[in-house]
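Dear colleagues,

As part of the handover before I leave the project, I'm documenting each prediction I ran so the next person doesn't have to rerun anything. This entry is a single chain, and its sequence is reproduced below.
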Amino acid sequence: MLYASGLPSSLTSAAAGAAADESTATQEAIDITPEAASTTCFVEPAKVYNSTTGDLYDVSADTIAAINGFEAPSGFQEEGSREQSFLYSLGNYIKPIGVEEGGQYTGKFFCQVTKACRSANKIVPCKQGKRSNVNKHMLNKHSLRGQKGEDMCSTRKGKAGTIQAALGASKTFAVGTKRCVQHVCQVHVYKGRVQPRVGCW
């Protein structure tokens, strides 16, 4: 606050107003702190995994350039973002314009992963907008999958390892099974009929 002794009241009021404005500006600047900025959410693109190694896949600059430079043909509109699904980091999905809710339609997915797919203008049909065909193409052709597919694979591997470890830990399990199979295969003839042996041995 400025104090100007002996000055006209108009100048004193102007000085006070300027000081108030400066104080307000300072307060506004203080409100924007690193702590406040840290609460801002930045959404990252959905992760893409190599299905063979399980490592994160780095989308190439050529793929990104092709996706960004894509223009939907007349009568179609592009949908999806890289944050929604890993598929949109690998290609472009379009659907017909003006489709009514529940109406019949077939979307199209343009694969941009490799030069071969881009050159061939590889299109994967998506009936009713379902992307299952696209997932199959990415997995079978490019060995790529998203977070959900990676999690499911890890779960299956974990269960298989647990079962294998349990069987390996039980030494008598395999022996007993083998003896049981051998026992059933032993047969004898009784009153003209071939019958398996019964009882333990």
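The mean pLDDT is 75. Residues 168-201 form one domain.

All the best with the project,
I.
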